[in-house]
Amino acid sequence: MYQQLISKQEKLALIGLGYVGLPIALAFAKKINVIGFDINPKRVDLMKQGIDPSNELPKEAFDNSNIEFTADLNKLREAKFFIVAVPTPVDEYNVPDLTPVLRASETIGKVIKKGDYVVFESTVYPGCTEEDCLPVIEKISGLKAGVDFKFGYSPERINPGDTVHTLENVVKVVSGNDAESLEEIAKTYELVVKAGVHRASCVKVAEAAKIIENTQRDLNIALMNELSIIFDKMGINTFEVLEAAGTKWNFLKFFPGLVGGHCIGVDPYYLTYKANQLGYQSRVILAGRSTNDEMAAYIAKKLIRDLIKKGVNILEAKVLVMGTTFKENVSDIRNSKVADVVKELKDYCINVHVTDPHADHDELKHEYGYGLNEIEKDYDAIIVAVNHDEYTKRDEQYFQSLAKPNAIFVDIKGIFRNKINNLKYWSL
């Protein structure tokens, strides 16, 4: 397979061209012939013009790429090697929603041929590839996995907004259904990953590796969030404590904050869901999830208490929230916990204005029911919720120009610590 791809006798198809799929597709397209498939024709049209719909990649990223973007299922029949990179969200009850990955499996089932390869990159619980996805492909295609076609799993490690830890610079975990497929899949990924690949012993190990990467980070941030609540009651600054503790050589430097996005705030639920199916009720992981999910309400209610203490009439209060994407310097609003802060404040009838240089007004309206506002004056409180570069470059004089005298300044991630003196300051 590898030889057929590098000789350009066969094509690789990338199914799902979002934050994860498009960078991978373009990386391969610099080396081999690629078909980029997405079910959204509007996104496909933009990519044909060299525009990344997710606003992550510059136009130059599309240069010198042997790639054909399409929403036509029949075009996929030309491919020999399929990579699936579709979202794997949870529903409103935090239960894994496998709809996108199962539909992608149906798509592959309609076009796959004997001798083909299929590799899943979407984050799933251990066993999902073999127990949920492959049976769909087999049923539709009439082919037998591991016999008529090879398969593997290689967890994505794309980090939106990160220009350092890119696809080529981060070791890629790969797996296959047997020794031959493992080697062919590994060599294929080595075409685009300069950092090299790690060959996992089996598909389940690769799936599990991905899921615990984000679960570990989720738990560590949950600990920091719980500490921030405790330290607030003690009247000490969490970031000062962490700065002091961080002088020890083996102290892990995590920080409190809102945990949203499509990975850290979602992936642990896939693991606990599978554990529950196997008769084990997670305690530690779900406790961490609960702590992180409650932080938005904690921030909003703490601010409301402070406004009341200052004698502000809550029904007349005006609050500016700066930043509403799930992390700094990206346009991605998926599972943004800032939206939960806004909702909590609005539930108390506070007049909330939201600004963000990266978010899309219409997308916010559709997803969360609120849009972006023009920045005004005389705010009773300002919340710097996301550390966009556009905000971190501002000084106290700027924030004072927007706020009432002695207004409350909430610096969620502590980036303005020791820089705000004339506003009532607090951070997590």
Briefly, what is this?
The chain is of the alpha/beta class.
Topology summary:
Elements: H1 2-6, E1 11-15, H2 21-29, E2 34-37, H3 41-48, E3 67-70, E4 79-84, H4 99-111, E5 117-120, H5 128-141, E6 150-153, E7 172-176, H6 179-190, E8 197-199, H7 203-234, H8 238-245, H9 267-277, H10 284-293, H11 295-309, E9 318-322, H12 338-347, E10 351-355, H13 361-368, E11 379-384, H14 389-392, H15 396-402, E12 403-411, E13 424-427
Parallel strand pairs: 1-2, 1-4, 2-3, 4-5, 5-6, 7-8, 9-10, 9-11, 11-12, 12-13
Antiparallel strand pairs: 6-7
Helix pairs in contact: 4-5, 7-9, 7-10, 11-12
Q: Looking at the structure, what is the overall shape? A: elongated
Query: Main beta sheet, described?
Result: 8 strands, mixed
Q: What is the N-to-C order of secondary-structure elements (H for helix, E for strand)?
A: HEHEHEEHEHEEHEHHHHHEHEHEHHEE
- How many domains, in number, for the residues? 2
Number of strands: 13
Low-confidence stretches: none
Mean pLDDT: 95
Number of helices: 15
The CATH topology of the largest domain turns out to be Rossmann fold
Measured on Cα atoms, how large is the radius of gyration? 24 Å
Q: Span between N and C termini?
A: 52 Å
What is the name of the CATH class of the largest domain?
A: Alpha Beta
CATH architecture of the largest domain: 3-Layer(aba) Sandwich
What is the H level of CATH, i.e. the homologous superfamily of the largest domain? NAD(P)-binding Rossmann-like Domain
